[in-house]
Amino acid sequence: MAGREADISAAAAKLLAELQEQGLATPDAADIEQYRHATRSGYEPGVIAAIDAFDGDIEDLPVAGVPCKQVTPRGWSEDGIVVLYAYGGGYVSGSPFEDLLVALPLATRSGARIIMVDYRLSPEYPYPLPQQDMQQVYPALLERYGAGRLALAGESAGGNQALGLLLQLRDSGQALPFCAALLSPWCDLTNRGDSHAFNDGRDPTLNNTWVDLAASLHAGGHALDDPGISPLYGDLASLPPIMITTGSRDLLLSQCLRLAAGLRATGSHCDLRVWEGLWHVFEFSPIPEADSSIGEIAEFILVQSRA
Question: What is the pTM of this model?
Answer without folding.
Answer: 0.97
